[in-house]
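During the second half of the funding period, the structural biology subgroup turned its attention to how the target accommodates small molecules. The most pressing case was flavin mononucleotide, which had performed well in the primary screen but for which no bound structure existed. We therefore specified the complex as follows and requested a full 3D prediction, including the ligand pose.
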Amino acid sequence: MNRRKFIKNTLITAAGAIVLGAAAGCTSNKITKGDKKMKILVITGSPRKNGNSNTLADNFIKGAQEAGHTVVRFDSAFKNVHPCVACNKCGMNGQCVFKDDFEFVKENIIDADTVIFATPMYYFGISAQIKAVIDRFYAINEQIHIPKKAVLIMTYADTSATKAQPIISHYETMLNYLGWSNAGQIIAPGVWMEGAVNSTQYPQKAYELGKNI
Ligand SMILES: Cc1cc2nc3c(=O)[nH]c(=O)nc-3n(C[C@H](O)[C@H](O)[C@H](O)COP(=O)(O)O)c2cc1C
């Protein structure tokens, strides 16, 4: 796909997501059950090893592994992933000029059945660490436009549900563009300090989502 098509598709899918999001109230939390053993790629975005989003990712992974799925994990905050510099040398389907830890994501995302995005909220968006990884999808854009399932795990300090909407909307718009389907969202508000999520229902919810994915 060339850049003009990318921009056109992006505008169409964004408009579609706004309409769908409004209709559904952006509260989709569907769990799809199946017998198939899947390969699951978990991409985390928090620099807090024992932080809230990593704790939820851990619980999700525990459930998924117990269900027999293969899980590979990429902790963006502890990896070297250079931000995309828009040189377009990859042509949206080729070798990136940066040979760094993104190679691991590239090797594991193409044949992954499901991709999990686990991030803290930073200034009403996803963390810079996970965003750098997502932006590098640009170089493998063609190869990841195949049906996959995805899950959003997100933690934040505020208690207002509306504050979560920009991140949910970004996630849904991206899925719509890639042709992926939402397999569940664990959105945990009101957790500020590292470990705060442990005294909520969300670790159990993440575990159950992993077990039933
Ligand atoms: C740089 C930074 C920006 C943040 N921005 C927000 C924000 O906009 N809204 C919010 O509710 N919490 C915000 N927080 C709080 C985190 O989202 C919250 O502590 C979250 O649970 C952290 O997840 P983690 O433990 O997985 O890193 C911010 C925290 C940091 C460090």
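Two results from this model are relevant to the next phase. The CA atoms of residues 93 and 140 lie 5 Å apart. Residues 3-24 form the longest helix (22 residues).
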